[in-house]
Design brief:
Shape: elongated
CATH superfamily of the largest domain: Periplasmic binding protein-like II
CATH class of the largest domain: Alpha Beta
Number of helices: 6
Order of helices and strands: HEHEHEHHH
Largest sheet: 3 strands, parallel
Mean pLDDT: 83
CATH architecture of the largest domain: 3-Layer(aba) Sandwich
Low-confidence stretches: none
Radius of gyration: 19 Å
Number of strands: 3
Strand order of the largest sheet: 2-1-3
Helix content: 40-55%
Length: about 160
C-alpha cells in the first residue's frame, strides 16, 4: 500500500512540478533523474509529453553522478535527486529555493531470501546482531553516489562506533 501511495504521489507531483514551471510554448525539457525514479519517469514521461506537447530529454544516473554533473556546470530544467542535495545546490547558487518542490519520499528496506525468517531490525542493537549474523550483505556502493548506499554506509559506521 505504501508503494502505491509513493507512486501516486510521485506521479502527481512530477506532473504538477513540470506544468507549473513551464512556459506556454512547446519546448524540449532536459531532466536529470536519479535511477530510483526510472520506472515512474518512463511511465509518466510519454503521458506528460502527450498532455503538454513538451518533449522530455530524460537522463538517468546515480545521485552521485548527477551531483557531479551539476557541480561541473551542467544545467537542466528539472533535477530529481534527494532533497538534501538539492538544498546544497540552492546553497551553492545552482538552484533557486523558490523553484524546489518535494514530490516524493522514499525509505530503505531490508529483503531476505524467500522462506527465510524476517530479521529483527527493531532497534540499533537488533540490527547490529542481524547484520553480524548474516552470511552476506548487499547494498549499493556509496562511492557511486547511491543515496541508499551512502545512508547505509553511515548506518554501518554508527553501528561500528557504538561497539567501541
Amino acid at each position: 500500500m505504501k508503494i502505491r501511495s509513493l507512486v501516486a504521489a510521485a506521479k502527481i507531483g512530477f506532473i504538477v512540478l513540470l506544468v507549473l514551471g513551464i512556459k506556454a510554448e512547446a519546448a524540449e525539457l532536459k531532466v536529470l533523474s536519479a535511477n530510483g525514479l526510472r520506472e515512474i519517469m518512463e511511465d509518466l514521461g510519454p503521458k506528460f509529453e502527450r498532455a503538454t506537447g513538451h518533449k522530455l530529454a530524460i537522463s538517468f544516473a546515480t545521485v552521485g553522478a548527477i551531483v557531479k554533473r551539476v557541480e561541473g556546470g551542467e544545467t537542466a530544467d528539472v533535477v530529481i535527486i534527494p532533497q538534501p542535495l538539492i538544498n546544497s545546490f540552492v546553497k551553492d547558487g545552482k538552484a533557486v529555493a523558490g523553484n524546489v518542490t518535494v514530490f516524493a519520499r522514499s525509505g530503505i528496506g531490508v529483503a531476505v531470501r524467500k522462506g527465510a525468517p524476517k530479521p529483527d531490525i527493531s532497534s540499533p542493537e537488533a540490527l547490529k546482531r542481524t547484520l553480524l549474523a548474516a552470511k552476506s550483505i548487499t547494498y549499493n556502493n556509496p562511492a557511486d553516489g547511491s543515496a541508499s548506499g551512502v545512508h547505509f554506509a553511515k548506518v554501518l559506521d554508527r553501528l561500528r562506533s557504538s561497539t567501541r
